[in-house]
Design brief:
- The chain is α+β, with helices and mostly antiparallel strands.
- It has a single domain, classed as Creatine Kinase, Chain A, domain 2 (2-Layer Sandwich), CATH 3.30.590.
- It contains eight helices and nine strands.
- Strands 1, 2, 3, 4, 5, 6, 7, 8 and 9 form a nine-stranded antiparallel sheet that branches.
- α4 packs across α5.
- The two termini are about 35 Å apart.
């Protein structure tokens, strides 16, 4: 859909298919079960036998395929938050996150997504709630037409989350970097691919695991009509990011980033 979504699809298209289970709530309170095969796109015969490396033209063509006329443009956002125990201030354990996900699903009609016996995400229409490796709580919004719709969607999400949080003693922190706990203090979420990441990251750099466990972000997905339009929007976003990152320091008179 967007600059970020197009890039991410290149990665997820290469991932192996996973079998997940989705539990939904019927109006009568009964439950239905169905299996969902998650795959970015069905494999083609050409893809199965091709050994040719990707070319520059392949990459350009992929992004060009995402161009849309202005009347079809949409905006989508993703935002992550750190969860913590209000009594101990320690990061949420998976058991607490599962309680939170179950509470939201049962109260507000979200479908549950499982990996094995563990609930790892929720889905409702084009929205989803998922977990990052260190338990960061992520809301991925639907593609919407206006900022007013985005605002209403975020307000609804926060209302649902807060109504369950206050009952289980959990708080959420809107911040980009974990200010207190070290990696060893943060539990790994029970998703198979996160264990793969944990084993791989130290082989390619020194801060990959920090990024996995100790960071949160806000992501904005924007449609584009052409290469020129995409470049213009990307440059504008890159110019705005440093200004936005510095805003907490101006407002709070304190630097919230702490290097490990």
């Amino acid at each position: 859909m967007a600059l970020i979504s197009q890039t991410a699809s290149l990665y997820y298209a290469a991932r192996k298919t996973q079998i997940l289970h989705v539990e939904g709530n019927l109006e009568e309170g009964q439950k239905r079960w169905r299996s969902v095969i998650v795959n970015a796109r069905p494999p083609s015969e050409a893809a199965a036998v091709s050994t040719d490396p990707l070319t520059k033209e392949d990459l350009i063509g992929y992004f060009a395929s995402g161009c849309k006329p202005k009347e079809n443009w949409r905006i989508g956002i993703e935002h992550e938050r750190f969860g913590f125990d209000l009594k101990t201030l320690r990061p949420m354990k998976y058991e607490q996150i599962a309680e939170l996900l179950n509470g939201i699903a049962e109260r507000f009609g979200w479908d549950k997504i499982f990996e094995g016996d563990n609930v790892i995400a929720l889905k409702q229409g084009n929205q989803s709630i998922a977990l990052e490796p260190g338990g960061q709580f992520e809301h991925s919004g639907a593609p919407l037409e206006t900022l007013h719709q985005i605002h209403a969607e975020v307000d609804s999400h926060l209302y649902q989350v807060q109504s369950v949080l206050k009952e289980i003693g959990i708080g959420l922190l809107d911040i980009g970097y974990q200010p207190k706990w070290e990696i060893k203090d943060i539990p790994l979420m029970p998703k198979e691919r996160y264990q793969v990441f944990l084993n791989y990251m130290p082989k390619v750099g020194s801060r990959g695991i920090d990024s996995m466990f100790r960071t949160c972000s806000v992501q904005v997905n924007l449609d584009f009509s052409s290469e020129t339009d995409m470049i213009r929007k990307l440059r504008a976003s890159l110019a705005l990011q440093p200004v936005r990152i510095m805003m907490p320091c101006f407002w709070c008179k304190i630097c919230l980033f702490r290097c490990p």
